[in-house]
Design a protein that fits this description.
The structure is a single chain. The strands form two sheets. Strands 1-2-3-6-7-8 form a six-stranded antiparallel sheet, with no helix packed on it. It is built from eleven helices and ten strands. The protein is an alpha+beta fold. The longest helix is centred in the N-terminal third of the chain and has 39 residues. The N and C termini lie far apart (124 Å).
């Protein structure tokens, strides 16, 4: 029995030792896990992030920034000190303002642009500002996009600096970026906070960017469709790139597995040739195109030719439209415009009356109004 008791005590001590070991390991893992969980908790920032974007042409401009509030504080010259400063933290001894709160404010351009007339490449940049008491502001675009504030700002990382003037504006409690006064080729971005507005103009060479994008697209699977070449040629024509427009419309007409003559590509080619001064060649294509279009397409073509001063060829197209499309209402309406362009108001009245007899109700007010003009001897073009 003594031996059994000693063996039992020995086994008990061994199990207790193993238990302590296991317990220690468990507590250690619990501590590590607890620390990890705390590190992974996501809490809201006091100055929450905001993002604003604007597209100019096919170029996207995006500003990402922290949004602090005024909260009754004096902002300019105190919370945001003027000039470059040593904040006694980080590595910078001459830091500008971060243009927001917390992490760097960043601005991203999907294509090359101009800021206040100065070039900057496509990419993402840290946006900093150095304000002066007289209202002048130096905008700084930096390759550093991931730092907290401007505490680690380095002038050597600057890509571009431009000077702008701030102006007074309505009270804005929460710092806000907006895009104002945008058009087809530019947009003005503005920082608005407290009673200050800091605007800067961003310009985009839309035509060159789009033309380059089209050229790339036509070499990938998008170029396997005739419509891509038609759309490319149309854009180039409207952008004034006539040689490229002619090259692309010719590819739609012949030479590729998808190529064929259509009303669309023949009439577009005729417009290109006319712009190039090749009137006789343009008119030959108009005649060919007029046999392929529907009544609405030929109406549009005829009225475009009238607007371009080509009254005779326009009249031929519009007359054929009536013949080929069996008097569909747009064709007779178009012919009325053709007669009016030639000063023949008697026949213009006859044609518009024929159109009125078959036109949908939603167009009859317009037709009646133009009929009254014709009766007074007024041109309806």
């Amino acid at each position: 029995m003594g031996c059994n008791y000693l063996a039992f005590q020995k086994l008990k001590k061994k199990e207790m030792k193993q238990f302590r070991k296991t317990l220690g390991l468990f507590l250690c893992l619990l501590t590590i896990t607890s620390s990890t969980l705390v590190a992974q908790i996501t809490l809201p920032e006091a100055s929450q992030r905001g993002t604003v974007s604007q597209r100019v042409g096919i170029t996207d401009i995006t500003i990402d920034y922290g949004r602090p509030s005024v909260k009754g504080r004096k902002i300019w010259g105190e919370l945001v000190p003027y000039g470059f400063n040593n904040f006694r933290f980080g590595t910078s001894t001459a830091a500008p303002w971060r243009s927001g709160a917390n992490y760097n404010t960043t601005i991203d351009f999907t294509h090359d642009v101009k800021i206040e007339g100065k070039d900057i490449k496509a990419g993402t940049y840290g946006l900093h500002m150095a304000l002066q008491e007289d209202g002048k502001v130096t905008l700084i675009f930096s390759t550093n996009t991931t730092s907290w504030g401007s505490y680690f700002y380095k002038e050597s990382e600057d890509v571009l600096r431009v000077d702008v003037l701030s102006k007074e504006g309505p009270q804005t409690e929460i710092l806000t970026y907006t895009f104002d006064n945008f058009d087809a080729t530019s947009a003005t971005a503005s920082l608005k906070w407290d009673k200050k507005v800091i605007p800067f103009k961003i310009e985009v060479n839309v035509t060159d960017i789009v033309m380059k994008g089209i050229a790339d697209d036509l070499r990938n699977p998008k170029g396997f469709q005739q419509s891509s070449w038609d759309n490319a040629a149309s854009y180039a024509y409207n952008a004034g790139k006539l040689e490229k427009a002619l090259e692309w419309v010719n590819a739609s007409i012949s030479g590729n597995f998808f190529s064929k003559e259509t009303f669309s590509n023949l009439s577009l080619k005729s417009q290109i040739l006319r712009k190039q001064g090749k009137t006789s060649e343009a008119n030959e294509l108009i005649t060919k195109a007029s046999r392929l279009g529907n009544s609405s397409e030929l109406y549009q073509l005829g009225t475009q030719l009238i607007a371009a001063g080509e009254k005779d060829i326009a009249f031929t197209v519009l007359k054929n439209n009536v013949k080929d499309n069996k008097g569909a209402w747009p064709s007779n309406y178009g012919l009325a415009k053709g007669y009016a362009a030639k000063g023949d108001y008697k026949n213009a009245i006859k044609s518009i009356n024929k159109s009125l007899n078959v036109a949908p109700d939603r167009f009859k007010n317009r037709l009646n109004s133009e009929l009254e003009k014709l009766k007074k001897g007024e041109n309806i073009n």
